[in-house]
Give the backbone structure.
Amino acid sequence: MPVRGRLGLFVAGSASAAVLVAGCSGGGGSGELASNETGSVTITPGNGGASVKPDSPIEVKASNATLENVTVQGEGATITGKLSADRKTWRSGRTLTPGASYTVTVQSRHDGKINTATSTFSTLKPAKTLSVIDVTPNLKGEEVGVGMPIMVRFNRPVTDKAAVERVLQVTPEKPVEGAWRWITPDQVIYRTRTYWAPHQKVRFTAQLAGVPAGKDVYGAKDVEQTISIGAAQITTGNISKHRMTVTRDGKKLRTIPFSAGNGQTREYTTTSGVHLLMEKASPVTMVSPGRKEGDPGYYKTVVQHAVRFSNSGEYTHSAPWSVGSQGSANVSHGCLNLSPSNAKWYYDIMQRGDVLKLTGSDREVEWNNGWSFWQESFDDWKQGSALA
């Protein structure tokens, strides 16, 4: 039976039990069980190892014996591994949690007898770790639209982006191709080639614990999140024709007249292109960009039932003052002005990540304006991956 603090061997049914001591290594060296009468097992890192690098593998090798079972117990990430076809070697399948203690228990067979060996070691506690501080979408109970990206932000810039990206996994119930793109050194975004299939769960996992993210920086812990994709709500509108049609799962719900930007300046021109609905609020105070009170063109207006679709101040919102122009003329400062009843209806049904596709203006929305990532072709999008 194993002896705590050492690698022990107990030979069941023999006249005597032999307890064999393994060498210890602060750098995580190997410990070995050896005997003339039994097979030997070597475990790396060895028993008593300290400050083992989190990206070091756990390896088990058997000589003149076969491995029956290898388990790893610890305070951090769950560690599993792969046994070779000849049952002579075993190797862990992932990195280890920094600053954690692990115990490896090995059962091997020799001459029909089962022997047990253990190794307990601790991993390095680095001065700097990498953590996920936000995964969007993240609202409790939220269902999102079929265009929704997955946006991951870290607590510090990532130097080894490829190593981190390799452990980011997205698993939808209904498979679709997708790719990550690094927007900034501390943010990476996942987008699919085509829209998500509606009404499904998507699982995001980041097996980040122990991953080398840069010089002397290791991932702190794993993260996982389940995302619910709701109905396929897609709005298509023509700015020059002043109307948009809303569908849900391919069925028309409503056609809504609107008044878009008057086009007198670039900022007063509603953007064409594929947008995503980003957030909603009621009320919202609209203030003219780059102008202060008293300047020509200054305005400050409180609106109700506002749904944002870009970072350049574009919303759908209630505009009772322009109902007479809705459906016939563009008179706004760039937003889509709706009647109070239509604005509330759209506000009530919206999901973050719903698609709003607009045509009919000479200003195209930039791919990085808000969540307008669908403006990029998927082939161009993939070039932003560290694994491209």
About this structure: The chain has three domains: 31-122, 128-230, 233-373. Residues 128-230 form a domain with the Immunoglobulin-like fold (CATH 2.60.40.3710). Residues 1-27, 33-37 have pLDDT under 50 and may be disordered.
